[in-house]
Design goal:
- The complex is a heterodimer of chains A (117) and B (107).
- Chain A has 117 residues and is mainly β.
- Chain A is built from no helices and 13 strands.
- In chain A, strands 2, 4, 5, 6, 9, 12 and 13 form a seven-stranded mixed β-sheet that branches.
- Chain A starts with a strand and ends with a strand.
- In chain B, strand 5 and strand 6 form a beta hairpin.
- The radius of gyration of chain B is 13 Å and the shape is globular.
- The chains are: A mainly beta (117), B mainly beta (107).
- Chains A and B meet through strand 5, strand 9 and strand 12 of A and strand 5, strand 6, strand 9 and strand 10 of B.
């Protein structure tokens, strides 16, 4: 399977602990996105990268959240001092961006479900 | 404010009946418009995009700029169409999603 992969698929943690999620995009895709989805809601944009550069961060992304894509390949999303409100599905997606021409399609991973007790 | 509204959380129809999933949006500028679908135990995937003007699995979506709507339609629903459908708008890949509509097609 050469699709977007995310790890771990499920994470249960106690309030105050740090967690890290990893995303491996489709290899030829230069853009990588993080979204968050809570129960009964659609995905909400968090941040995105083009290659290794983080181009935009949502206001949803508090100081406790940090995302990296150090070599322009995989990405990590770290949440420090987790709170119960952080419980959600964290979705990663990738796409191919070629300047003005954009395929417009995001390829999503299966998500990493976080439960904060 | 930029927003996507899908007014129905659940739409239940019988097989062979027409389907229309509603999507209304507010956005400054000229966004791209999409419908994404999530089948049971599968990942979210693109169903169709406005710019392509495609018909995928018998679904079409018409953009009405005056009403700022992008409703998804299919003339004859099939059981395999049962899924969660999300309308999304945006550009550069940064998308705003609606809350989703569950389509249930009964035999």
């Amino acid at each position: 399977d050469t699709g977007v992969s995310q790890d771990p698929r499920h994470k249960i943690t106690k309030r105050g602990q740090n967690v890290t999620f990893r995303c491996d995009p489709i290899s030829e895709h230069n853009r990588l996105y993080w979204y968050r989805q809570t129960l009964g809601q659609g995905p909400e944009f968090l941040t995105y990268f083009q290659n290794e550069a983080q181009l935009e961060k949502s206001r949803l992304l508090s100081d406790r959240f940090s995302a990296e894509r150090p070599k322009g390949s995989f990405s990590t999303l770290e949440i420090q001092r987790t709170e119960q409100g952080d419980s959600a599905m964290y979705l990663c997606a990738s796409s191919e961006w070629a300047g003005i021409v954009n395929t417009g399609e995001l390829f999503f991973g299966e998500g990493s479900r976080l439960t904060v007790l | 404010a930029q927003r996507v509204t899908q007014p129905e959380k659940l739409l239940s129809v019988f097989k062979g009946a027409p389907v229309e999933l509603k999507c209304n949006y507010s956005y400054s500028g000229s966004p791209e418009l999409f419908w994404y679908v999530q089948y049971s135990r599968q990942r979210l995937q693109l169903l169709l995009r406005h710019i392509s003007r495609e018909s995928i699995k018998g679904f079409t979506a018409d953009l009405n700029k005056g009403e700022t709507s992008f409703h998804l339609k299919k003339p004859f629903a099939q059981e395999e169409d049962s899924a969660m459908y999300y309308c999304a708008i945006g550009n550069t890949g940064k998308l705003i999603f609606g809350q989703g509509t569950t389509l249930q097609v009964k035999p």
